[in-house]
Design brief:
- By secondary structure, the chain is of the alpha+beta class.
- It folds into two domains: 96 residues, Orthogonal Bundle (Peroxidase, domain 1), CATH 1.10.520; 72 residues, Glutaredoxin.
- It is built from eight helices and four strands, in the order H-H-H-H-H-H-E-H-E-E-E-H.
- It has a four-stranded mixed β-sheet.
- The longest helix is centred in the N-terminal third of the chain and has 17 residues.
- The model has no long low-confidence stretch (mean pLDDT 92).
């Protein structure tokens, strides 16, 4: 399947959601659709073209409790043999919705576990500097020694002790 197909579905749904002012509802519905069409016990059945289409569409009706337009999208994905792309559609939609709502996602890597307060403080500082609402997720990499590495989109801020030591080492080697 072409990689653009999920984006096309997401763009169409996003236009509907913006016009109706229902981005939050669509986020929720698309998450439900993605779960049912890709991860549930029903997913293999819904993706199996050997099972009559009317049975699979009836299963979508029974399984999904979402708004009618969202259910139509789920049925369309099943009908076109693209049910397994539902997670990609949801991911693409969420990216568009985040951009529309001024939300940026940050990946914060630290040498030790960050507590909720520390992560919230990092989110707040990033939000102020970027002029967007930042939602951060944290991970641990003990090799950093100390400090943090932050990635927001294609921007990387490396404030790790490991990198500062590497830069200092280069400076000292160049001073010979």
């Amino acid at each position: 399947m072409a990689g653009d197909a999920p984006n096309r579905y997401a763009q169409a749904v996003f236009a509907i959601a913006v016009e109706a002012g229902s981005i939050a509802a669509w986020r929720s519905d698309l998450a439900d659709i993605a779960q049912v069409l890709t991860s549930s016990q029903a997913a293999p059945v819904l993706a199996d073209s050997r099972i009559p289409l009317d049975r699979r569409l009836a299963m979508v009706d029974r399984t999904l409790d979402v708004q009618p337009l969202a259910r139509n999208l789920a049925k369309l994905l099943v009908q076109r043999g693209r049910s397994l792309a539902a997670a990609d559609v949801a991911r693409s939609f969420n990216g568009m919705a985040d951009a529309h709502e001024g939300i940026a996602h940050a990946r914060v890597t630290a040498a030790v576990d960050l507590n909720a307060g520390q992560l919230a403080a990092i989110e707040q500082r990033l939000s102020q500097s970027l002029g967007k609402q930042v939602r951060a997720t944290a991970s641990v990499d003990p090799a950093l020694i100390g400090g943090v590495v932050v990635r927001v989109g294609d921007k990387l801020v490396d404030g790790s002790v490991r990198t500062r030591l590497r830069l200092l080492r280069r400076e000292l080697q160049g001073a010979r």
